[in-house]
Amino acid sequence: MKxxxxxxRKNLDIVFVGFNPSIRSSETGHHYAxxxxxxxxxxxxxxxxxxxxxxxEDHNLLELGYGMTNIVSRPTKAADEITKDEYLQGKLELRxxxxxxxxxxxxxxxxxxYQQYSEKKEIPWGKQDESVVAGTIDFxxxxxxxxxxxxxxxxxxxxxxxxxxxxxxxxx
Length: 172
Known about the structure:
five-stranded mixed β-sheet, Uracil-DNA Glycosylase, subunit E, 5 strands, alpha/beta, 7 helices, globular
């Protein structure tokens, strides 16, 4: 299994951070490629993208001001296969990426991703009071995995806060 490429450039509006690529993403070379993952539907339903993108179009999000990466690059069947060492290394690499690329907002796709990155235990949904990297906003959204038990409209509601935060940042 091979890692998939990040889609990053300087000064993006949002960088989405997942746990790690799925086996399907590794096979296709694209983020959120598992058909059971609802990431692309959530982005569209939340008003983040003008239409529902396919995973094969993941690089096109750069044109909208959005990037993508993961805290761990090794593909696995499930996030519980990621080791402590991989999380530790991934956390350091992710922080370097955020410091280098300076997105306005970093959206962590799952509380567990943010827990590994921030080492915080109690994490609310949405904008965090304090960011790990100064000058960016940390935002925590539910995982888009089909295994998540939250209702879809609740998930979409949380993600729909993202465009509001970006609009607010652009008017400053």
